[in-house]
Amino acid sequence: MTLAPNVYDAEPIPDAARDEIERLLQSGDLFRYTAPENAPVALLEREFAALMGARFALCVSSCSAALFLSLKSLDLPRGARVLIPAFTFAAVPSAVVHADCQPVLVEVGENFRIDMADFEAKLDDSIGAILISHMRGHTSDMDAIMTLAETRGVPVIEDAAHSLGTTWHGRNIGTLGKVGCFSFQSYKLVNAGEGGVMITDDPDIIARAIIMSGAYEHNWKKHPVVQDRFGHWQNKLPLYNMRMQNLSAAVIRPQLPEVARRVRDGRSNHDHVAGRLNATPWLHVPDALPPEKRAPDSIQFNLIGFDSDDMARAFQAAAKARGVSVQVFGLSSDNARAFWNWQFIEGGAPDLPRTRAMLMRACDVRLPARLTRADLDYIADALIDAAEMVMGETPARAFGT
């Protein structure tokens, strides 16, 4: 009997991390500001900025922290309205709320990307910033978004937690807006368990973010960038203590040379499974937009012709019986990606019928880059077989034997 592939374990941490971790453990030198220079976190910031083609990088405790600090670094007034897509993770509106701002949700279509008509309609004079979440690595029309934002003089932050390695017209996602934010959480392309980083070319934004991240007193002097701006902001900003520590950086740094390979393999895996699923009438993976080259480690697809929630749940159960777990975003109880569960937003959930309808039939399956072609075919077979069984095209059969 063939066993279903394990899609949850990450790739092993490269051996190169072990010596550095041992050195840190022997020295106890875990705080990023203990060393006078070249602490692992500082080296990671330089290396990540170079990898992305950005002037500055700041490593912090999570991508949520990066989003929060990005918003605070824009110096928005309290209560500023921030435009975000309605299809994202709860951490995104949470960061907006923590920054004393008000999320304004925009419709998302069946292709998992921002509905540009709704975006343009809501981008009025009350909007202080735009936070574009490239949810699950799907890039919205950044040409149109940036043109509208620049015309109105509204800064754009990119939540690129799922988009390390994705490009738009050949440019790295995360470098199109004023700030780009990335995640090193375990299910992302680079895994440190937790962690995040923000990149920008703006000297005032990076200076403000560094101080607010927890560079108290004169620890900002250990950041060899924009020293004149640090002096300007010293003691004028609150400290939020969102620093990354050296052990995390030691785990991340040896993975950066692996990014290109993981992107290549992840894209190949995704496209292979997408081709299989799109050959059926019941499952549909939307195409990428022409300027976009994705770096996926999961696959999202829509259920076609599943007219009731019970049918969608039956598909989930049938796939699960074959060893493949499928998340249907709108059907999972208390799912943090379903906007109606964000009860912390003032005024409650808005009426977003397109996004709601999409989430009730949008499916999510992990496809880590390390999977083999046999693993991918097992997953595709299980999903197709489950769909056909629910839709009555084939009888139930023993799977994996």
In short:
The chain has 401 residues and is of the alpha/beta class. It has helices at residues 16-27, 40-52, 63-73, 91-98, 116-122, 142-152, 203-214, 227-233, 246-252, 259-278, 309-321, 353-359, 373-390, and strands spanning 56-60, 81-85, 102-106, 127-133, 156-159, 167-168, 171-172, 179-183, 196-200, 283-284, 292-293, 298-303, 327-328, 362-366.
Describe the structure.
With 401 residues, the protein is an alpha/beta fold. It has two domains: 16-256, Type I PLP-dependent aspartate aminotransferase-like (Major domain) (Aspartate Aminotransferase, domain 2, 3-Layer(aba) Sandwich); 258-390, Aspartate Aminotransferase, domain 1. The protein is 36% helix and 14% strand. It contains 13 helices and 14 strands. Strands 1-9-8-5-4-2-3 form a seven-stranded mixed sheet, with helices on both faces. Strands 10-12-14-13 form a four-stranded antiparallel sheet. A three-stranded antiparallel sheet has the order 7-6-11, with no helix packed on it. Helix 3 (63-73) packs across helix 7. The longest helix has 20 residues, at 259-278. The protein is globular and about 70 Å long.
